[in-house]
Amino acid sequence: AQTPVKVTVTGAAGQIGYALLFRIASGQLLGADVPVKLSLLEVPQAVKAAEGTAMELDDCAFPLLSGIEITDDPNVAFAGANVALLVGAMPRKAGMERGDLLEANGGIFGPQGKAINDNAADDIRVLVVGNPANTNALIAQQHAPDVPAERFTAMTRLDHNRALSQLAAKLQVPVTEIKKMTIWGNHSATQYPDLFHAEVGGKIAAEQVDEAWLRDTFIPTVAKRGAAIIEARGASSAASAANAAIDHVFDWVNGTEWTSAAIPSDGSYGVPEGLISSFPVASRGGRWEIIQGLEIDAFSRERIDASVRELVEERDAVRALGLI
Ligand code: NAX
């Protein structure tokens, strides 16, 4: 029998954790023939709730689930981990300054990065979901000098999927008709969902919608969808975020020709090297590759640059705070 893959989930007792763990255990993260071992990392006061979730996981009798471990110690949680989903983070509270938010998250993602560095398996792949996701991923990566930098990624797949769904509804086509969608930049309101490379029925998407809709409806709807979900549901996106995390890791491991992911920049498209920014990516041989050679017009350039500028500011802020 195949050795189980160890998947560590932080913030396991939270609402994304609750939507995520059952899908991992059922085989949707890695494949229907891959046994998994779950490690749930929580803060001490939420360990009991994580134990409750683990009881429910037991009660599913998932054939692929070979074991569950629950801990508040990152060194235990990441020991031998092959996949780490960093979901738990410090949310922005009313009146919190950006510096306070970054500092609080530095206190989480710095030590977790070090624990990954010291304990994880050689093939560790990290996806950061907890916000501010791109910069939290950068902090973790900078505390893990022995892990290849490219193994640290942040999630923009939910934004990508939101963009597919909005465009499909507008053009009255199934989402499967849409190819080459891209989210550029930061997972924040500055992100840029790009319809100038997306194709519907083999033709450029931007040419099938009017410019006002693209600029004044599509882009802000995708970028502010998280806030709209909170407004409607009274709670932030959880099942859709978990779904996107599953999509991201599945494609990373199993390959894809085109999706969006925030990965360390190699300087492509004018994004400063080292920033963890969203790009159009393919996955081949278990590695993300930035899709090269796209022409970027002035409209897109301005928006990509604005989002990347925000990432530079976040990086400079965490540097100034001594967090990286
Ligand atoms: P919840 O507040 O329901 O759960 C977070 C959990 O993390 C809590 O159980 C908490 O105890 C735990 N936690 C906090 N610090 C921890 C630490 N140091 N170690 C381990 N666990 C820790 O939040 P939830 O709705 O699950 O969202 C989690 C994160 O995802 C938030 O930061 C949220 O902003 C972010 N999101 C990111 C998205 C993305 O597209 N990248 C979309 C959805 C979501 O908003």
Give the gist of this structure:
This protein is an alpha/beta fold and 324 residues long.
Task: Name the features.
324 residues, alpha/beta, Rossmann fold, three-stranded antiparallel β-sheet, 10 helices
Could you walk me through the main structural features you see in this protein, from its secondary elements to its overall organization?
- By secondary structure, this protein is an alpha/beta fold.
- It has helices at residues 15-25, 47-60, 74-77, 98-119, 133-142, 157-171, 211-223, 225-233, 239-254, 298-320; strands at residues 5-10, 36-41, 65-71, 83-86, 125-128, 152-154, 178-179, 182-184, 192-194, 199-200, 203-204, 256-264, 276-284, 287-290.
- The chain has a six-stranded parallel β-sheet, with helices on both faces. The protein has a three-stranded antiparallel β-sheet with strand order 7-10-11, covered by helices on one side.
- β1, α1 and β2 (36-41) form a beta-alpha-beta unit.
- α5 packs across α10 and α6 (157-171) runs antiparallel to α7 (211-223).
- The radius of gyration is 19 Å and the shape is globular.
- Residues 10-11, 13-17, 41-43, 46, 87-89, 91, 108, 129-131, 133, 155, 158, 187, 226, 236-238, 241 line the site of ligand NAX.
Q: Which CATH-level-2 architecture of the largest domain?
A: Alpha-Beta Complex
**Main sheet attributes: strand count, strand direction, barrel closure:** 6 strands, parallel
Mean pLDDT: 97
Distance between the termini: 42 Å
Taking pLDDT < 50 over at least 5 consecutive residues as the criterion, the unreliable ranges are: none
Name given to the CATH homologous superfamily of the largest domain: Lactate dehydrogenase/glycoside hydrolase, family 4, C-terminal
- Envelope shape: globular
Number of strands: 14
Sheet with most strands: strand arrangement: 3-2-1-4-5-6
Kindly state the percentage of residues in helix: 40-55%
| Tally of domains | 2
Classification by helices and strands: alpha/beta
User: What's the alpha carbon Rg, rounded to whole Å?
Assistant: 19 Å
